[in-house]
Specification:
Layout (H helix, E strand, L loop, with lengths): L5 H12 L5 H29 L6 H8 L1 H16 L15 H8 L2 H35 L1 H7 L13 H33 L4 H55 L5 H28 L2 H6 L1 H11 L4 E6 L6 H22 L4 E9 L4 H4 L1 E9 L13 H9 L4 E5 L6 E8 L3
Parallel strand pairs: 1-2
Antiparallel strand pairs: 2-3, 3-5, 4-5
Helix pairs in contact: 2-3, 2-4, 2-6, 2-8, 6-8, 9-10, 12-13, 13-15
């Protein structure tokens, strides 16, 4: 008879999936029972150590030597019976060398694995034995009437059926509880194995963060190299062609005085357009990667930005040793974009840029070596990233190298933008 309806059908499916005869019950039972043979070497070693007449050092040494084999055995048990793949721990050191063995024995991961074998594995074996006994006693108690009917009639007592009803009921309950007991032990064993046999989650997260930081640094370096390549191609290719074109037009205008007025006007217009294109290309090249930044450093590059600003800029650069190329490029563009925002929105008359390299405010041990950039203007203030004044892009550029930016811009001014860039990149 088919079961109709959503809730009754789901209930029936759940009951059949978790019944004592289901695959779920037998899988968990087989997994917990398999912990018994897997723990036999450890149990025998501990037994020999306790019962030995003198100091029993050989069994513990054998357990230490069999540590890797026991770990593989446990991983195979989890993978084959529970479908759980416990990640392997990266081996530290080489093979079969004294220094590698010493390093391995001092490793935190090695002792976590021994902790599983010496503590969790014996407990898992005891839990497996309890599950097997639960199944055995459940079957025996449930079939108690069958065992009684096998016996001859003369061996039965007059009140032979008084207690067997209770025994049968207890057997049924034990059969119903055995799968859940096995599932509970399997879950606890899986949690312990993931924590002790697998890699340390905190260490893995630290390693992952380090890998991501290295990958990001590589991407930033690659992007910087690509900008430099485009700058060189534009400078040596298109820019030189435009310069040659402007020179030829200038020569034609100077050496051909007898041309009609219309032709002279066309040449003059083409010459002016060529010079404007050269100027725009120069601005584009400087925006990609200024050559002076690579050749003479941040001080000279920022001096050029300050000289081109439409208002007086007081520039102070005190960095000593040059930071990395990526940090230098970010610092250059931060100052360039900040001064451009001041020119567009702040209505400032003066601006001050201070660049210094040194430890963070918390000390060298806390913040490391930082490049601190402070830009102050006497404008109207009220600068905020939400207003679309270019500060969002500035914040993203600073964040690309794990830098920080602080904006203080009350209405009426002054505006102070402080940027800190780590020099470790």
């Amino acid at each position: 008879m088919a079961i109709r309806g959503g809730a009754p059908r789901r209930t029936y499916t759940w009951i059949t999936a978790h019944a004592p005869w289901s695959a779920w019950a037998w899988r968990n039972t087989a997994f917990t029972a398999a912990a018994i043979p897997a723990a036999l070497p450890v149990l025998l070693g501990l037994t020999c150590t306790v019962t030995a007449p003198g100091p029993g050092t050989i069994p513990p040494l054998l357990i230490l030597l069999l540590g890797r084999l026991l770990t593989r055995l446990q991983r195979s048990r989890f993978r084959a019976l529970l479908g759980l793949d416990v990640p392997k721990v990266a081996r530290e050191g080489g093979r079969f060398t004294p220094s590698a063995l010493v390093k391995r024995m001092r490793s935190e991961a090695t002792w976590r694995q021994y902790g599983y074998h010496l503590l969790v594995s014996p407990l898992a074996a005891v839990a497996g034995a309890l599950v097997v006994l639960a199944w055995a006693f459940g079957v025996a108690a449930t079939c108690v009437y069958g065992w009684i009917w096998i016996l001859p009639m003369e061996t039965r007592t007059p009140a032979w059926g008084n207690d067997y009803d209770t025994i049968t009921g207890c057997g049924v309950l034990l059969l119903l509880a055995a799968p859940w007991l096995a599932a509970l032990f399997a879950r606890l064993d899986a949690v312990a194995a993931a924590a002790l046999l697998g890699p340390n989650r905190a260490r893995e997260l630290e390693r992952r963060v380090e890998d991501l930081a290295e990958s990001r640094a590589g991407v930033l370096d690659a992007a910087d190299l690509e900008r430099r390549r485009i700058e060189r191609d534009l400078h040596d290719g298109a820019q030189q062609r435009l310069v040659a074109l402007a020179m030829n037009l200038g020569i034609a205008r100077a050496t051909l005085p007898d041309l009609p007025a219309e032709a002279k006007a066309v040449i003059d217009e083409a010459h002016r357009e060529a010079k404007e294109a050269i100027e725009e290309l120069n601005s584009l090249v400087r925006g990609l990667h200024p050559a002076v930044l690579e050749d003479r450093g941040l001080d000279a590059a920022l001096s050029g930005i300050a000289a081109r600003a439409p208002f007086p800029v007081e520039l102070t650069v005190d960095i000593g040793q040059r930071p990395g190329a990526t940090v230098e490029a970010v610092a250059y563009f931060v100052v360039s974009e900040t001064l451009a925002n001041v020119a567009k929105h702040a209505r400032a008359e003066r601006c001050r840029v201070h660049v210094v390299r040194g430890p963070a405010a918390g000390g060298p041990g806390r913040g490391g070596d930082l490049l601190r950039i402070t830009v102050t203007d006497d404008g109207v203030g009220g600068a905020a990233p939400a207003r679309g004044t270019g500060l969002v892009g500035l914040r993203k550029r600073v964040g690309s190298v794990d830098g920080t930016i602080k904006i203080e811009s009350p209405l009426g001014g002054p505006t102070v933008i402080t940027v800190e860039l780590p020099c470790g990149l």
